[in-house]
Amino acid sequence: MNAVTEKTQPTVAGYRTFELGAFTFMRDEYFVTITWPVKHGRQSHTMSADAFLRALMRDVAWGFFYGVVNFDNVFGTRNLYGKVEFFGGRLNEHYHKAGMSYVEVFDSPVAMKLIKEILADWVNDGFDPFAAPMETGDAAFGEKNGSNLKAIDRFRVATKRMPGLKGDSPLREESNGYSINRAFADVAQDQPEIKAEPGFEDEMHAFNLFAYLSRSDVTWNPSVTSVCKNSLFCPTTEEYILPIIHGNDRVEWFFQMSDEIMWNITDKETGRPRARVLMKAGDVASMPADIGHQGFSKKRSMLLVWENVNPNIVKMHESGELPPYPVEF
Ligand code: PHB
Ligand code: FE
What we know:
The chain is an alpha+beta fold. The protein folds into two domains: 4-150, no CATH class; 157-217 and 219-319, Jelly Rolls (Sandwich). Helix content is 16%, strand content 33%. The protein is built from seven helices and 18 strands. Strands 7, 8, 9, 10, 11, 12, 13, 14, 15, 16, 17 and 18 form a twelve-stranded antiparallel sheet that branches. The chain has a four-stranded antiparallel sheet with strand order 3-4-5-6. Strands 1-2 form a two-stranded antiparallel sheet. The radius of gyration is 21 Å and the shape is globular.
C-alpha cells in the first residue's frame, strides 16, 4: 500500500505552474499567462515569455527596484520597501475603471523567494534574460529545456572603495576576461595616467569608464559605480528595449553618454502617453517622479542613471512637499 500522497505540481510543456496569493503564473512554449480574481471570476493576461522573463530578472536582481516595475501596461510590482504589491491592471486606467484590476501585498522576502523559483524553472539553457536578443537568440521559447542558473545568479561585484583602489573588490576588467562588446569595438581602451603625490598612492585612482562599460555583458542593468551620501551614479549599457516600464517614485536623471535612446513617457497612475523623448549622446534629462518610462536603444548605447536614495524622498513626493519635477523654470 502506498501511504505517501504527494501534491503534484501541474506542469505545462515541462514548466511548473506557480501561485502567489490569489495570482497564478503559467508558462507554455511561447507565453506566460497570469490570472487574478475579479468580481465575476478571474481575469487572465498573456505576455511573451521572453519579455516576462526579462522583466522578472530585473525584479529579482534589483530587489523590486524603486517604485513600480510594470512588466507591460497591465501587470507589475510596486515596491513598498519591506513589502511589495503585485498588481494586475491597477495602473491601466481602462482595466481599473472597468473593475478588472487586482492588488495584493506580500512580505518582500516571500514574494522574492517565489519569483526566484519561477525564474530558475522557466529560464531555459541558452537564454540569458540580461542579454540583448541578438546575443541570446530564441532560446527563451519552446518546451522546457534545461536551465541557465549561471545567467540568473550573476555575481554582483559590490565595491567597497572606488574600483581599482587598494582594498576594493576586484574590478571586473580586462584581467577577468570580459571582452569588448561588438557594438563598442571603436571605444578606446587606454587608461588614464595617474600621478599621485608621494604618500597618496593609495588614495588616488582613475579608470576609463567608457572602456569599462564597453566590456559589460549585460543590458539594462545599472551598476552602482559611485556613492556620495544619497547620490548614486549607475552607468549601464542599453540595447533593444528596457524590459520594464519603470514607474518612478522619485526624480531620476539620465545622461546619455553615447549613441541614442528613444523614451516613451507615460502617466504613472493611468498609463496614458505623455511624451516621446529622443536622447542623443551628450543629452541630459530628468525623469519626473509621476511618470512611467521605457527606453528603446537601436544600437547598444551607454547611459548614466543618477539616483537619489534618500529614504524619505518617496513620502516627500507623496505628501506634496516636493513637486514631481526637479526644477521650477
Ligand atoms: C530606469 O528605470 O530609470 C532605468 C532602469 C534600467 C536601465 C535604465 C534606466 O538600464
Ligand atoms: Fe526609471
